[in-house]
Design goal:
Elements: H1 15-22, H2 58-64, H3 76-96, E1 115-121, H4 123-127, E2 131-137, E3 143-149, E4 161-167, E5 180-184, E6 188-193, E7 200-205, E8 210-214, E9 222-225, E10 237-244, E11 251-257, E12 261-268, E13 273-281, H5 293-296, E14 306-311, E15 318-323, E16 328-332, E17 354-357, E18 365-370, E19 377-382, E20 386-391, E21 399-402, E22 408-413, E23 420-425, E24 429-434, E25 444-447, E26 455-460, E27 467-472, E28 476-481, H6 484-487, H7 493-502
Antiparallel strand pairs: 1-28, 2-3, 3-4, 4-5, 6-7, 7-8, 8-9, 10-11, 11-12, 12-13, 14-15, 15-16, 16-17, 18-19, 19-20, 20-21, 22-23, 23-24, 24-25, 26-27, 27-28
C-alpha cells in the first residue's frame, strides 16, 4: 500500500516579505508651519518748528511781578512739599558717593603729545644774528610779541633792533614774516604786554630807555617814552611789568635796571610821556641782615644790579628782585626809608625797598616769578643751572631742582596747573617740571632744532595755557602746544601745593 520514498526538497520564497522590503515610505512629523511677515514704519511727514519769547499773558506776568507780601501761586507750595524729601535724599546720597572722584569733564579732544605749532621768524633780525631776548602774549591770547637784542658779552648800544608781533588767529599767518615790525634804535632787553589793552606793549632797552607802543596806530606807534633824562634809567633795563594802581582799571609801569634802580611810572598818553611817580634804589649797605656774609663784604659797590623782577599777584605792595651778585630780595613799594645814595637830580627821593633777604645764589639771578596759586611761593633761577622753589616766609629754598648743566634764563609757573613750572635753559631746551611727582626729573622736555643754541625766554599763554612761546638765540620764536596732562589741574593739586609751602626748609 504505502511505501517510503525520498523526494527532492521544494522551497517556496516569501512573496510578502519581498514585497514589504521593496515598498517603503519615510514619515516625519513637525509643528505647523510658522507664518512670518516683515514690516517697517517711518514718519511720513516731518515738521520743523521754532519758538521764541512772546509777550507774557496776564497770568504769567502777574506771577513774575508778584510782591513778597502777595499770596503764593496756586500749587507751588504743595509741589515743593512733595518733592523736597526726594530731592534732599538724593543730594545727601550724592554727597557721600565717591563714584566720580577724580573725574574731569573735557569737551576738547584730549592729547598727550607736545607738538610745535609755529616757528616764527623775522629774516632781517636773523641776518643780523640777533637773539630773541623777550616774548610776551597779548591779553587776548592771540598775539605773541618778541624783542630782539643780544645776550652775549659786548656793548650793543649802537646796534639797532626790532620788536615784532604775529597774530596766530589770522587766517593768512606767515610764520616767516611778522605782522608788525618796529625799528628800535638799540637792543630790546625786556617786553611786557598790557594786561587789559591788547594794543599796548611796554619795552625796556639796553640804553636805559622805557617805551610804550600802541599797535592800534597806523603810523607812529610810540605812545610814550621816558627819553634819556635825569629821571630815567642810565643802565640796561632788564625788566618791565604793568602794575595796577589804586584807581581800578588803571595801570602803571615798573622798570628795573642793572644800576640798582626800580622806577614806577604812570602813563600820560596825552603828553606822550611816562611820568615818574616813585623811585627806589638798592644798595648793599641797606640789604637786610639775612644776607650771606660774602655779599656784605661787597659794600664798596654803590648799587645792587637788578637783573629780574616779579610782582606779587596777591599783595600789590610786594615785589621780588634778583641781582647780578646773586642776591634775592623781597621789597615793598610802601617803603619810606631813604636810600643811602648820593643826591642826584631826580625829582623824587630815592627809597630803599628791600625788607627781607633770601639765601643768595652763586651767580646772577636771571628770573624770579611769583606763584599764581599760592601767596607765599615763588621760583628763581640763574647761572647755577638750578630752579629754586622759595617761600616768602623762609630764608632757604624749599625745593631745588637740577634743570641744566648750563644757565637757566627764565622760569615761570603754569597759569593753569599749580604744581607745574617751565624753565628755559642755555642748552636750548625747555624743561617742564611737575612738583606733584615723586621724581625730581622733568615731566617733559621741549627741544629746539638748532644745535648749540639757547632758549633765552618763555611765556605761557594766559588765555590758552596749552600754548607756550619760547625764544631762542637763532632769532626764532617757537609756539608749542602742551599736552592735557601738563595743563589740566588734577584733584587735590592745590592741597599738595599747600603742603610744599608749609614744609620747613633745610
Amino acid at each position: 500500500m504505502f511505501t517510503d520514498e525520498a523526494l527532492d526538497c521544494v522551497s517556496v520564497a516569501s512573496v510578502w516579505r519581498k514585497s514589504q522590503q521593496s515598498e517603503g515610505e519615510t514619515r516625519a512629523c513637525q509643528t505647523r508651519a510658522v507664518h512670518s511677515a516683515e514690516a517697517e514704519v517711518q514718519t511720513g511727514t516731518t515738521t520743523v518748528a521754532c519758538t521764541q519769547t512772546e509777550p507774557l499773558d496776564r497770568t504769567t506776568e502777574r506771577i513774575l511781578q508778584q510782591n513778597p507780601g502777595d499770596p503764593e501761586p496756586p500749587g507751588l507750595k504743595d509741589f515743593l512739599l512733595r518733592a523736597e524729601e526726594a530731592v534732599s535724599g538724593e543730594l545727601v546720597r550724592n554727597s557721600r558717593s565717591h563714584a566720580f572722584d577724580g573725574f574731569q569733564v573735557n569737551w576738547d579732544q584730549r592729547s598727550e603729545q607736545i607738538s610745535r605749532l609755529h616757528l616764527l621768524k623775522h629774516p632781517v633780525a636773523q641776518d643780523k644774528s640777533l637773539h630773541v631776548t623777550s616774548v610776551s602774549w597779548s591779553c587776548t591770547g592771540s598775539v605773541v610779541a618778541c624783542g630782539y637784542g643780544r645776550i652775549d658779552d659786548g656793548d650793543w648800544r649802537t646796534e639797532s633792533s626790532y620788536v615784532c608781533t604775529w597774530n596766530l588767529d589770522r587766517r593768512g599767518l606767515d610764520a616767516k614774516q611778522a605782522d608788525v615790525v618796529i625799528d628800535v634804535p638799540t637792543a630790546v632787553t625786556a617786553l611786557c604786554c598790557h594786561p587789559c589793552q591788547p594794543a599796548l606793549i611796554a619795552g625796556g632797552l639796553y640804553s636805559g630807555e622805557v617805551l610804550v607802543w600802541d599797535f592800534s596806530r597806523s603810523q607812529d606807534l610810540v605812545l610814550a617814552q621816558t627819553g634819556m633824562s635825569v629821571n630815567s634809567h642810565r643802565e640796561p633795563v632788564y625788566q618791565v611789568a604793568w602794575v595796577p594802581l589804586q584807581k581800578k582799571g588803571e595801570f602803571g609801569l615798573v622798570s628795573a635796571c642793572s644800576g640798582g634802580r626800580v622806577l614806577l611810572w604812570t602813563l600820560d598818553s596825552e603828553q606822550s610821556s611816562l611820568v615818574l611817580s616813585a623811585a627806589y634804589a638798592l644798595v648793599p649797605q641797606q640789604v637786610p641782615h639775612g644776607s650771606d656774609v660774602r655779599f656784605k663784604a661787597r659794600g664798596s659797590s654803590s648799587s645792587v644790579g637788578v637783573t629780574s623782577l616779579s610782582l606779587s599777584p596777591w599783595d600789590g605792595d610786594t615785589f621780588l628782585v634778583g641781582s647780578e651778585g646773586g642776591l634775592l630780595l623781597r621789597c615793598s613799594f610802601c617803603a619810606q626809608t631813604p636810600a643811602a645814595v648820593a643826591p642826584d637830580d631826580h625829582g623824587l627821593t630815592l627809597r630803599a625797598p628791600a625788607v627781607f633777604s633770601f639765601r643768595p645764589c652763586s651767580g646772577p639771578v636771571h628770573s624770579v616769578h611769583c606763584s599764581p596759586f599760592h601767596r607765599n611761593l615763588f621760583v628763581s633761577a640763574g647761572t647755577d643751572g638750578l630752579v629754586h622753589v622759595h617761600s616768602l616766609l623762609q630764608v632757604n629754598p624749599l625745593v631745588s631742582l637740577r634743570v641744566s648743566d648750563s644757565y637757566v634764563f627764565q622760569v615761570q609757573w603754569s597759569p593753569s596747573r599749580p604744581l607745574v613750572l617751565a624753565a628755559a635753559t642755555g642748552q636750548g631746551e625747555v624743561q617742564i617740571f611737575d612738583l606733584g611727582r615723586r621724581s625730581q626729573r622733568a615731566a617733559a622736555s621741549v627741544s629746539h632744532d638748532t644745535v648749540g643754541g639757547a632758549a633765552t625766554c618763555l611765556d605761557f599763554n594766559g588765555q590758552n595755557p596749552r600754548l607756550l612761546a619760547v625764544g631762542h638765540t637763532d632769532g626764532t620764536v617757537a609756539v608749542w602746544q602742551l599736552s592735557a596732562d601738563l595743563t589740566e589741574q588734577k584733584p587735590r593739586e592745590s592741597s599738595q601745593l599747600e603742603q610744599i609751602a608749609n614744609q620747613v626748609a633745610e
